Amino acid sequence: MDYSEEEISREFKKLTGQDVETVLSLAGKDTSPTSPTHIRYALHLAIILANSIGAPKGAVLQTSQQGGKEGGISKNAVTDVGTGAEVSTHVQDSAMEARLKKMEQQLSVSTQSQRKDKVEEALRNGSVVFPVPWTPMVITGASCCPLTNIAYSCNFPGALLSRLESPQSVIRMPATVHSRLAELERSVDSTPYNQKKSALERELLAFFDISVCNIRRISPEDICHFLIKKDGKGKTRIHSVNCPYLGRVGPSECECPSRLSAGTVQSLVGQLKSIFKVRGLGVEWDEGLCSGNPASSLRVQKYVKAIQQEQAKSHVKVSQAKPLFFGKLTKVFSHIDDLLSKVSENPAERFVLLRDQAFFKLQFFSGDRAGDLAKCLTQEIHQFEDGAGLLFGHTVGKTLNNGKVNEFTVMRMDNRSVCPVTGLEKYISGANSVGIDLRYGYLFRPLDRTRKLVLEEAVSTSSMYNRLKSYLKDMGIDEGETTHSIRGGSAVTMAVSGYGDAGDIMSHVGWSCEQSLERYTRFGKVLQRGTVSKKFRNVAEAP
Length: 543
Prior knowledge:
- By secondary structure, this protein is mostly helical.
- The protein has three domains: 5-53 and 82-153, no CATH class; 189-313, no CATH class; 326-527, hpI Integrase, Chain A (Orthogonal Bundle).
- It is built from 20 helices and seven strands.
- α7 packs across α9 (262-281) and α12 (347-366) packs parallel to α16.
- Residues 56-87 and 126-169 have low confidence and may be disordered.
C-alpha cells in the first residue's frame, strides 16, 4: 500500500510522538514538499531502530488456580482473563511510551554529539592560527574548510561556498612579506582621491552612527538624506526666479540659500559608489530585491537630476578657474623678488620664496598640472648639452599610469626675471647655500611645522595654493585665481599666440583629448568669437 506524505507524517507522530518536520530539521535535512524522500527515510529509520530494540520481554499475567480440578476452569476464569488483557494492554502502552522516549533521547544525543564533533573539528583546525603573529590567510584556509565540507555533506540548500581542501601544513609568511603588503597599501591609500574617499566614508558612518560592519543597512533613501545634509555646506547660491541677483556672478546680499554645486553632488555620488563597491555591495542596485549598491539606485539618480534642474532654473553656470595671465603673474614674480631682498637673514623664509618663484614660473611655461609638478623628482629633469633648456619626464600624476609619461621642455629666456630655467637654478643654488641638497628626491619640498626642517617629501597642492593667494592678497590684486588658473592662463596664451596648432599645444601640456584643449583654451570662444557677427555685418554693409 502506497501511503501519502501526510499519512506517513501522521503515522510517524503516532509512533514517536514527534512531528517528522521537527526531527528532520534537527538532523539538518530538507523538509520542503519538494523533498518527500526525507520523510519516508525518517520513517524507515524509526522502524529499523524499533526492530533493533525489539518487543518487550515478558508474559501475560493470569489468575492463579486454587481449589479447582487439574485441567479445569475456574468459575472466575472469564473475569480473570478479561482483567489480564486490560493489564497487558496497559503494560504494552507503558513499554511503547518508554521506548519512544528512549528513541527521542538517542536522537537528541546523537544530533548534539554530531554538532559538537563538527564544532570541535572546526576549532581544532582554526586553533593553529591564533599564535602571534596573526595570519588572516591561514584562518581563511584552515577554519573555513571543515565548515564548507559540512555544508556540502548536509546538502545545505543554496550553499555558495566552494569546497576547499584541508591544508596539510600552516604557511607562515615572513615579516618582510607583510611589510611589503603594508607599504603597497599605504601608497594606494595616500593618494588624494582615496584620502578624500576615506574621509567621506567616516563622515557617512558617523552620520548614521553605525560601524562599517553595518554599512549594508544603508538604503537609497538614506543616501539622499546624507546628501541633503552635505548640501547645507555648499557655496553655490540658488536664486529664486524673483531674486534681483538671478544670473549674476559674484557675492550677493539676498537671502537665497547656498547649496552644493551639481558637479560636486555628482562627484560625491561617484565616491559613494566606490565606497559601497569596495565593501562588497557591487556596482548596481537591484530595485526588486532592494539590495546592492544604494548609490547607484534610481532614487539617487533622480535626486541628482533634481539638483541639476534646480540650478539650471537658477541660472547657475558651471564655474571654471579664472585664467591667470602672464602680465599679472609677472607682478607676482616681482613681489617675490622684493620679499627675497628683505629676508636674507632668514633661511626658512628664503627657501620658501625661492621655491615658490621657481614653481610658478615652471608651471606657467610648461602648462603642467600643479599636483603633478609638485611630485616632480630631480632625477626626471635633464638639461640640454648647450644649456638652452630643460627636458622633464613625469611618470606620476593624475592621469599618468601604466607606463605613460608626460614629457615637455622649457627653454632659457633672455628676460631672467621670468625665465623658468633661471628661476629653477636660483632655487637649487639657494637651497644648497642653506644646507639642502636637491640633487635627488622631490624637487619642491615643504617645511615642517617648526619651520626649521625641510621635509624629504613632496609639497602639497594646497600649500602652493595658499602661497599664491597670499601674494595676490598682499598686492591687492586677488580676483579668485588659484594655481589651476596658472595652467588656464598658460593654455589660453599658447592658443592666442599663434605659435603652433592644437596638436602642438596638446603635446606640450600633456592632453590626450581635444575636450581638454577646448575647455582650457576656449578655442571656440577666444579664437572664433564674433566670426558670425562679422559676416552678418559684411552682408548688411554690402552694396
